[in-house]
Amino acid sequence: KEKLVEKAKEILDANFQEGGFTIPCKGLYPFQWKWDSGFIAIGLAYYNVKNAKAEIETLLNAQWENGFIPHIVFHNESDTYFPGADFHLSKLHPLASKEYRSTGMTQPPVTGFVLQEMLKIADDKKDMLGFIKSQIDKVYDNHKYFYSNRDINNEGLVYIYHNWESGTDNSPIWDDIWKTMNPPEYSFERRDTTHVDASQRPSKREYDHYLHIIEIAKANNYDDVKIAELSPFLVQDPLFNAMLIKSNTALIELYEKIGNNADKVAQLKSWQEKSIKGFNAKLYDEELGAYVHYDLRNNKPIRFVSSSSFSPLYAGIPDKERAAKLVKTMMDKFGGEDKYLCASFDPESDRFNPKKYWRGPVWINLNWMLYYGLKDYGYAEISERVKQDSIALIENDGFYEYFDSRKEIRKTETGGYGGNNFSWSAALLIDLLH
Ligand code: DGY
């Protein structure tokens, strides 16, 4: 156990950059990513408070004037990733950061609950609360951005306009949306498949779709109103919205600790009430016994079960009865003794692929949320299994980006896929083993 933690720290230290941020993985992801940054800060908070704070600060420094926080910040130069800063041209947006280059899309809003985790972990609470006080308004402004610009039906649910915003990049959830599009065949040079076997990454045709949505956004200077009107991809994602809700809760509690912010607390509570209500009313699928995505562009629910379906447990969204149904769905489909919890996509679906990125493999960050969520709802045994499965995967296979959920394949091959020495796998292991 101690050796694993030592190895995890070595990985984080090796991935830490001079500019004060941590890359998710050498070669494959050579810049700062928004949600990676949050999970990484949690691991760092255990042994290097200075770097943990820097991680958050460097991300928030790149915030746009409208509160938007980009999914990648290009602090540094690197030619090992595509699409880089030159492709995204975030500065087309009039309120984009003048100082930093970034993408014009975002990622799940984890920063609020990350600040709260950092406070829980800190030995010197006063010092950490002082740091939080210096950063928290930026996170509040980010939530304000979401509620002001991305809740177009005023139902407490914000949209994402790109699969890269979801974090679950190539999930089978998006397959039917791709069928509604017919993008040109772009010519570009992939870099990811020079680092990782192509069978574990999205296809070229999928990348055409990804780039096409960005081209539409760029042609409209990343204007939110235009994007809501024109993007072929417009989705209310349960994982994304659950993270926003979890972070709302965190901001409320942190502002109450800090004091003197009654207006912001009241505003957060009002967003929160509407969000939880809207979430339960719109994103729950009775028949599947799970939360699902909603396709706003084509006006229909996307009826598939994925690990995102269970993430509302981490945010306290379902009542006890609904939580019990979620847990049953999870255990029936994903929880067999021959499997590690929790595959990222329904193992019973013909779209399941246990090796391909978000089409089936287990991811440590989703497991981490499930572990805490299940624990909060009183599922001690299952939550412990999620924790032990996560540790076993890393112990047996290494600090990979994602893992095969099938136990038996390890008789003949390794089950770790994607990038190795992956920062959030290391960071969250430190937390799980604490
Ligand atoms: C990638 O390039 O696959 C990244 O995950 C996008 O954020």
Brief synopsis:
With about 425 residues, the chain is mostly helical. It has 17 helices and nine strands. The strands form four sheets. It has a three-stranded antiparallel sheet. Strands 1-2 form a two-stranded antiparallel sheet.
| N-to-C order of helices and strands | HEHHEHHHHHHHHEHHEEEEHHHEEH
- β-strand percent reads under 5%
The number of distinct β-strands equals 9
**From the alpha-carbon coordinates, what is the Rg to the nearest angstrom?**
20 Å
The average pLDDT is 98
CATH fold-level name: Glycosyltransferase
Name of the level-1 CATH class: Mainly Alpha
Count of the domains: 1
Number of helices: 17
Portion in helices: 40-55%
Largest sheet: spatial strand order = 3-6-7
The parts where pLDDT drops under 50 for at least 5 residues are none
- Morphology call: globular
GO biological process, one term: protein N-linked glycosylation
Domain Mannosylglycerate hydrolase MGH1-like glycoside hydrolase: 29-425
Organism: Maribacter vaceletii
GO molecular function: Glc3Man9GlcNAc2 oligosaccharide glucosidase activity
Question: Overview of this structure, please?
Answer:
- This is Trehalase.
- GO terms for molecular function: Glc3Man9GlcNAc2 oligosaccharide glucosidase activity.
- Pfam families: MGH1-like_GH (PF22422).
- The protein is mostly helical and 434 residues long.
- It has one domain: Glycosyltransferase (Alpha/alpha barrel).
- 49% of the residues lie in helices and 5% in strands.
- The protein contains 17 helices and nine strands.
- A hairpin with a 4-residue loop joins strand 6 and strand 7.
- Helix 2 runs antiparallel to helix 3, helix 2 packs parallel to helix 17 and helix 15 packs antiparallel against helix 16.
- The chain is globular.
- The chain starts with a helix and ends with a helix.
- (2R)-2,3-dihydroxypropanoic acid (DGY) binds next to loops.
